[in-house]
Design brief:
Structural class: alpha/beta
Number of strands: 9
Largest sheet: 7 strands, mixed
Helix content: 25-40%
Number of helices: 6
Mean pLDDT: 90
Strand order of the largest sheet: 5-4-3-6-7-8-9
CATH architecture: 3-Layer(aba) Sandwich
Low-confidence stretches: none
Radius of gyration: 17 Å
Order of helices and strands: HHEEHEHEHEEHEEE
Number of domains: 1
CATH superfamily: Vaccinia Virus protein VP39
């Protein structure tokens, strides 16, 4: 009895479809695309959802959080305009996927999450991938990381009503911060903030939906 041909796409085909989906959603920076091609999303997703790693959709992870859809990760990364000498702060480690992308572009990445479990699991993936320029910390991200400030770039992967003052204070003049803002989980906008010698410049990018930025540590911390 002959076996039916396996019509499932190969890894190479999935990666090509993945990159095409990113481009179609506006991720056009070749350096960012190369970073996203180099970082496999699968290890950051556990259980039954791991087979959907190459789909452009958010997926649930532990502690009631989500891993953002790759096109949003790409757009936020692209908006940061990272250079190889930059020191980047990420608020909201989550799965660790966004930090892994950043690590391919920046000199140093500091990532903070209020959930100890998420930080420990992300550290394990970073170590397995030999990503040595990431420091993952359990802390209240709404206060940033003043002992390592100032930062060239700051990215926030949870929504606040306004850009948090402590984070703006830790951004270098000439630096960029990208974050979702909004008063509810249904009305949020992704914005880019440029810090100049004369003040702050804001660009609104697109509508998004993120978990809220909460103060304090998670119950598991």
């Amino acid at each position: 009895m002959n076996e039916l041909p396996d019509d499932r796409p190969t890894d190479a085909e999935r990666k090509m479809q993945f990159l095409y989906a990113l481009r179609s959603k506006g991720v056009t920076d070749n350096i960012v695309l190369s970073a996203m091609e180099a970082v496999d999303r699968s290890p950051f997703i556990r259980g039954i959802f791991s087979e959907r790693a190459y789909e452009d959709m958010p997926l649930p992870i532990a502690c009631g959080q989500t891993i953002s859809q790759p096109s949003v990760v790409g757009l936020m990364t692209q908006a940061l305009e990272i250079s190889p000498r930059d020191k980047v702060l990420e608020i909201g480690t989550g799965s660790g996927y966004q930090a892994a992308i950043l690590s391919k572009l920046a000199r140093r990445v500091y990532t903070i999450d209020r959930h100890r479990r998420l930080v420990h699991e992300a550290r394990a993936v970073f170590e397995a991938m030999d990503l040595t320029n990431i420091t993952a910390i359990v802390a209240d991200g709404s206060y940033g990381l003043p002992e390592q400030a100032p930062f060239d770039r700051i990215i926030v992967t949870a929504a606040a009503e306004d850009p948090p003052g402590p984070l703006l204070a830790q951004l270098k003049v000439g630096g960029i911060m990208v974050l979702p803002v909004g008063q509810s989980d249904t009305v949020q906008h992704l914005i880019r903030v440029r810090k100049t010698a004369d003040g702050l410049e804001y660009d609104e990018m697109r509508s998004v939906r993120f978990v809220p930025l909460l103060e304090g540590l998670g119950k598991d911390a």
